[in-house]
């Protein structure tokens, strides 16, 4: 078997390529950062300077592959209701967007419950500017998660784990 290294990726044979979730941490993180920069695109300088992200690599489908939950913050991604959350699935050496959910707040939890084979997700949300914050459940409908938190509130004890805490480190996207 012949191994060829091209742009940091190892090719074995004709079709074996390391997946983003299989690469060591730094390579995986760089792959995510490059994907996000491409996704965000060209922005005015003042937006570029304050665009930040936090990410959690989690197995939302319990299939061994790691999806990525990304919390984007900064003036282009946040408003009075909260900020933008992306859910990404690995695709070759990069990712594809499964969901873009707006007006979310931290913490983000991966719940023990599932819908259509994917774990439910919880985010903090608000119905309007005067209502109190609440934990909202986002369920996978077979193709995507909701684009904004529904009024479906979590009741009682939340079973699952916090994957992006309120105190998460946020990384500058363009530095």
The count of strands amounts to: 12
Which spans have pLDDT < 50 for at least 5 consecutive residues? Answer: 1-24
Amino- and carboxy-terminal Cα gap: 39 Å
Order of helices and strands: EEEHHEEEEEEEEE
Task: Name the average pLDDT.
Answer: 81
In terms of DSSP E residues, the strand content is 35-45%
Total number of helices: 2
* Sheet with most strands: 9 strands, antiparallel
Gyration radius, rounded? 17 Å
Tell me roughly what share of residues is in helical segments: 10-25%
Q: Which term fits the overall shape?
A: globular
> What is the SS-derived class?
mainly beta
Structural summary, described in words:
- The chain has 2 helices and 12 strands; from the N terminus they run βββααβββββββββ.
- With 175 residues, it is mainly β.
- Strands 4, 5, 6, 7, 8, 9, 10, 11 and 12 form a 9-stranded antiparallel β-sheet that branches. A 3-stranded antiparallel β-sheet has the order 1-2-3, with no helix packed on it.
- The radius of gyration is 17 Å and the shape is globular.
- The termini are far apart.
Summary, kept brief:
With 175 residues, the protein is mainly beta. It has two helices and twelve strands; from the N terminus they run E-E-E-H-H-E-E-E-E-E-E-E-E-E. It is globular and about 40 Å long.
